[in-house]
Amino acid sequence: MTAVGGAFTSTGAILVLFILLVIISRTIVGGAY
Known about the structure:
rod-shaped, about 35 residues, transmembrane, transmembrane helix, membrane, Sporulation protein YjcZ
């Protein structure tokens, strides 16, 4: 149960970071153009 929760949390954290990176990239590109 703990291992599954840990894996889910790690995956969720990576997913959130990835989404933030995409949003920031779009903002920079949108601002540049």
